[in-house]
Design goal:
Radius of gyration: 20 Å
Enzyme class: oxidoreductase
Number of helices: 16
CATH class of the largest domain: Alpha Beta
Structural class: alpha/beta
Oligomer: single chain
EC number: 1.3.1.91
Strand content: 5-15%
Family: Belongs to the dus family.
Number of strands: 9
Helix content: 40-55%
InterPro entries: Aldolase_TIM (IPR013785), DUS-like_FMN-bd (IPR035587), DUS_fam (IPR001269), DusA (IPR004653), tRNA_hU_synthase_CS (IPR018517)
CATH architecture of the largest domain: Alpha-Beta Barrel
Low-confidence stretches: none
Number of domains: 2
Cofactor: FMN
Length: 327
């Protein structure tokens, strides 16, 4: 298969609040050039406040392809934000209909919108009219009280008719009462078969599966039944997994950077970002899993956990670590 026909979304890294910020995304782009990356969820209110827009939407060009995930429930506001996202050069507009946190529920968006498929359809339609970018929806297989396969198929049918380009389905329901967001990532059982059934019912609609996928062997198995895979926590805990993503999923022959080369590139990045007020720990907090499962992983985590918060720390911290030769 030629590289040009393999879509970026074949493999993607999930949007994760407080985790997938621009520094994490730059780090991951050193490991994989082709994987589709997502921003953290950005609310429409944050974007439409012009004084803070740059704070939420800025990114390094190297991060592309990059999807902007929006949180909101007002079709007009979402459409305006989608247009702004296109103006900023994002690759995709994604609507968050899966987050189960109390903060999201209080704003009447996220997973609770699965109770209102017609509203989500209106959101999709409004964004489609405002931008030429793909408009996608990330959602759960259901929520408490609307968690049957028939409910899921009805929801997908409704947003498909509104013109959604792709959907990403987290294969757990969201329990909005009684479970924390962390518990919602673990307690509800995974129901991959439901996602596979969505693909059978809507063969022309690209379906991306998410939830509990920890390695590329599992990803390849899922791809026998759906179009693509999104990985979340495993991408954060074991980021070097993605050093082989371009060869595994995009037929690239480049073996990618070594861990040491990644660190040297990050040192250059930290030096550049220092002019914007970025501290070393803003970047290196995302990198602590780089040696996951390897000799020296504990020494690596301990060194940076202890030293990256100092007031006079700069990019030389990375060179100082590499001189120790403990990994």
């Amino acid at each position: 298969m030629e590289n040009t026909v393999i879509p970026a979304y074949r493999m993607s890294i999930a949007p994760m609040m407080d985790w997938t910020d621009r520094h994490y995304r730059y780090f991951m782009r050193l490991l994989t050039k082709r994987t589709l990356l997502y921003t953290e969820m950005v609310t429409t209110g944050a974007i439409l406040r012009n004084d803070r827009r740059e704070q939420f939407l800025s990114y390094s060009p190297e991060e592309l392809p990059l999807a902007l995930q929006l949180g909101g429930d007002d079709p007009v506001a979402l459409a305006e934000c989608a247009q702004i996202g296109e103006d900023y050069g994002y690759s995709e507009i994604n609507l968050n209909v899966g987050c189960p946190s109390d903060r999201v529920q209080s704003g009447s968006f996220g997973a609770c919108l699965m109770r209102e498929p017609n509203r989500v359809a209106e959101m999709v339609s409004s964004c489609k009219k405002a931008t030429s970018l793909p408009v996608t929806v990330k959602h759960r297989i259901g929520i408490d009280g609307k968690d049957s396969l028939d409910d899921l198929l009805h929801f997908v049918h409704t947003i498909k008719d509104a013109g959604v380009d792709r959907i990403i389905i987290h294969a757990r329901i969201a329990i909005l009462e009684g479970l924390s967001p962390a518990e919602n990532r673990k307690v509800p059982p995974l129901r991959y078969a439901d996602v596979y059934e969505v693909k059978k019912q809507f063969p022309e609609l690209p379906i991306i599966i998410n939830g509990g996928i920890l390695d590329f062997q599992s990803a390849h198995k899922h791809m026998l039944s759906v179009d693509a895979v999104m990985i979340g926590r495993a991408a954060y805990d074991n980021p070097y997994l993605f050093a082989s993503a371009d060869s595994e999923f995009y037929s690239e022959k480049d073996p990618g950077l070594s861990r040491e080369d990644v660190l040297m590139e990050l040192a250059n990045y930290i030096a550049r970002m220092d002019t914007l007020g970025t501290k070393v720990h803003h970047v290196m907090r995302h990198v602590l899993g780089l040696y996951h499962g390897r000799h020296g992983a504990r020494a690596f985590r301990r060194f940076f956990s202890e030293k990256m918060h100092g007031s006079n720390v700069d990019s030389n911290l990375i060179q100082n670590f590499l001189k120790l030769k403990v990994v």
